[in-house]
Amino acid sequence: MGLLIESGESAWTTVHVQLRVIGALMLRDVRTRFFGVAVGFLIAIAWPLANILILLGINTIADRAVPFGESAALWFATGLVPYTAFNYMSRFIMLGLVLNKPLLGYPIVKPMDLLLARAVLEVLSAGLVATMMMLIYAMLDIPFLPSDPLQALAAMGASMLLGLGFGLINGVIAGLYPFWITGYALFAIIMWIASGVMIVPDSLPETARYWLSFNPALQGVEWMRSAYYDGYGSGVLDKPYMLTFAICAVFGGFVLERAMRGQILK
């Protein structure tokens, strides 16, 4: 019994130490991500928000017809918010390992600590971006609340989970081969084009719709929009597929990090 108690205490001590390490890494990222000051985290939040508002402004000035629904601002926001959550989560988690690799010189810091610290920050950032979008739309008297809030939250969570999986896998690859950062940037452009942010996938020919449906980021966008528009996405949306893909990506990221840890630390 004594050995079990000691073993349990030892495991808890290890977990506690790693949590403190992750917390310290998060604070370091908050202070150093932009210009070496704490206010940089606010800039990190404003950056994706600015991207969303710029795209909304361009489409408003161009006076494009609303592909679905009555509000162009709502239509584009429902696509941009989940995609941005996925994209920023995956990209900044990947960069977290590459940019902070010198910290691995400390024996207490593991590659997974760097990845998870960035992941937690990106979850907080995505939540704040969505909240600020709601406040801005409320001030502009643009309805932003979904008809099904639970599904909207689920879509946001699934998009961030997918971003976590992509970030873990690409973070390990970039930790081994830094040039992959450029490769993933090019891949992200393809993902953006195929994400359905600007189009209605159900309106496309069946062949195009079929192949686009394999893009898990598109599934996140369709899921979010289905929470706003009744009957939306019936020809493409596959929630179990997206969740399965995201969970497998996260699991694969953990396995890959553990298998490649020795190589990353070299």
In a few lines, what is going on in this structure?
With 266 residues, this protein is mostly helical. The chain contains nine helices and no strands.
Set out the fold topology.
Layout: H1 2-32, H2 40-61, H3 72-99, H4 111-139, H5 149-176, H6 180-193, H7 206-212, H8 216-226, H9 239-265
Helix pairs in contact: 1-4, 2-3, 2-4, 3-4, 3-5, 3-6, 3-8, 4-5, 5-8, 5-9, 8-9
Span between termini: 40 Å
Largest sheet: none
- Give me the secondary-structure category: mainly alpha
Number of strands: 0
Helical stretch count? 9
Report mean pLDDT, rounded to a whole number.
Answer: 82
Q: Which outline best applies?
A: globular
Strand residue percentage: under 5%
Provide the number of structural domains: 1
Which percent bin holds the helix content? Answer: over 70%
Task: Summarize the structure in words.
The chain is an all-alpha fold and 266 residues long. The protein has one domain (2-265). It has helices spanning 2-32, 40-61, 72-99, 111-139, 149-176, 180-193, 206-212, 216-226, 239-265. The longest helix has 31 residues, at 2-32. The model is unreliable at 2-8 (pLDDT under 50).
List the keywords.
74% helix, disordered N terminus, single chain, 266 residues, 9 helices
